[in-house]
Amino acid sequence: MFKVSYDCAIEKSMMAWAKRCTWGHSPQSARKGLGENLWMISQPDYNKTASAISATAYWFYELKRFGVPVDNVMTIKVFNRRVAHYTQVVWQRSDRIGCAVNWCTHSSVKMTFAGCQYREAGNNLNGYIYETGTSPCTSDTDCQCNDCKCNATEALCIRPDSTPMPAQKYANPQPYHG
To answer: How confident is the model over 1-14, as pLDDT tens digits?
Structure first.
């Protein structure tokens, strides 16, 4: 499994879509192979931090509500269980994420719109959501990609083009005023 890094360019892509205030996924051509999760509430000025927390909780709740099979393989049957938001969040090959929250007060649908985009996109049919039962990486040779490095402390693989943010003990999110 790859270590996930926050990516400001992906955030910019997600924010561009959120600012359009059009409910629904962005076209594939606009996100160039990125996966995408969306969430909204029909309150156009809902707290942005609470929106981000609620969106993530909603996506993770799909696991509890609908479940995934023990083998963790994404089949059409699994996809149709309505767990695709959860599986995208935890997709083992995704290593970058960018998220945005926008207040849509001037659109036909008044809402607070939240979303995240992921590189690489998940939910590939017959792919592993994440592999279970395997040993975590302890050396670079354990990672299944070219030139990847193993962070043995976290037992996660890091792609060569990834620049992880420094680990933080806590987060103190601030409202976005953009």
So the answer is: 788 999 999 999 99
Q: Which residue has the tokens 């998940």?
A: 122
Q: In this structure, are 114 and 59 located in the same domain? A: yes
Tell me the residue ranges of DSSP E strands in 5-82: 5-6, 35-41
Query: Cβ distance 66 to 81 under 8 Å?
Result: yes
pLDDT of residue 177 exceeding 70 = no
Residue 123's domain comprises: 5-134
E strands of 1-136, at which residues? 5-6, 35-41, 96-104, 111-119
Structural domains in the chain (count) = 2
- Same domain flag for 124 and 150: no
CATH number, residue 130: 3.40.33.10
- Given a contact cutoff of 8 angstroms between Cβ atoms, the answer to whether 125 and 115 are in contact is no
Residue 128 carries which DSSP code? B
Q: How many angstroms separate the CA atoms of 151 and 20, rounded? A: 39
The residue behind tokens 């890094």 is 5
